[in-house]
Specification:
alpha+beta, 13 helices, 6 strands, elongated
């Protein structure tokens, strides 16, 4: 490592932020985990740094271990969380970049592994399963390296990833971005006009809506099940919020909606779509999770 420069070490940050966000589902926690990994690197004596053949691999291993600890403690914290806990939604860098190049949101690679649907499935995994699955299946790290993160054998890590893969289940045919955008646009139009019949037609009869207010803003504490019930709820909300502006935005890399009032982003909604109908709505209202969206407009 003798020739490794500070710039090269710093250059690993983008990859580490991407790994940590997928492991934790929180941009703020991901940034903290990466900062901790760097702090441990710079705390090493120079002689120890020079012994490390791959600083990038070392930083990934440490970041993974930090995330594993966070995931373990997060389970207890989320039991005390008010209402449903949802991952932190991400804006699209191309749409939202205002020159803040050091913002972690600007360093995210938005692909299928950060969609809200995928992140919610990751939440159902044990911490060890999630680490093994994300590092191997998403980032293609070898099980030998993952073993160093989890403190288990490569064979055990392979089993963890296989178990996690079963939770993901059989992937259905992907929805094109254009098809998803059309459905979301129709939902927006029906929501704006308070057209319950149109919303019911756009929502799968078995659709589920989950909202995350974190106890900081008013919202439903339990999932709303059924397209008709969701449609009535959406229209009731629109009626109580005159002046609410709905904007079509990329949310975690796929078409979504942002609700803004008096220039302030109040809600970021993600949608899962199948056969032209919405099957899931995830509405994040917790202000602490909407900070990356503050630059809108």
């Amino acid at each position: 490592m003798a020739g490794t420069s500070t710039d090269e070490i710093a250059g690993e940050r983008r990859q580490l932020i991407n790994v940590a966000y997928r492991l934790l589902g929180s941009l703020a926690e991901a940034e903290d985990a990466v900062q901790e990994a760097y702090a441990r690197w710079y705390a090493l004596p120079r002689s120890r740094q020079e012994e490390i053949v791959s600083p990038g691999a070392w930083l990934t291993t440490v970041t993974g271990r930090v995330c594993l600890d966070v995931l373990g403690s997060a389970r207890a914290r989320r039991e005390r969380y008010v209402g449903a806990w949802l991952p932190e939604p991400l804006p699209d860098r191309a749409e939202w970049d205002r020159g803040h190049g050091t913002d972690p949101a600007d360093q995210m690679v938005l692909d299928e592994s950060v969609t809200m649907a995928f992140l919610v499935v990751l939440e159902s995994m044990t911490p060890a399963e999630r680490v093994a699955f994300v590092l191997h299946d998403v980032f293609r790290y070898p099980f030998a390296q993952i073993a160093g993160v989890l403190g288990r054998t490569p064979a055990a890590c392979k089993q963890l990833a296989a178990s996690a893969r079963r939770r993901v289940g059989v992937a259905r045919a992907p929805v094109t971005t254009a098809g998803r955008a059309d459905t979301v646009r129709h939902v927006k139009e029906a929501w704006e006009t308070k057209d319950i019949a149109a919303l019911v037609d756009l929502l799968d009869p078995a659709a589920v809506m989950i909202a995350d207010g974190g106890g900081m803003v008013g919202t439903v504490l339990r999932p709303i099940e059924g397209g008709a019930r969701i449609a009535r709820y959406m229209v009731a909300i629109a009626g109580k919020a005159p002046g609410l502006e709905l904007l079509e935005r990329s949310v975690n890399g796929v078409p979504g909606l942002v609700a803004r009032h008096a220039g302030v982003v109040m809600t970021v909604a993600s949608f899962d779509v199948a056969d032209g109908r919405v099957t899931r709505i995830w509405a994040v209202r917790n202000p602490e999770k909407l900070r990356p969206w503050a630059r809108d407009g």
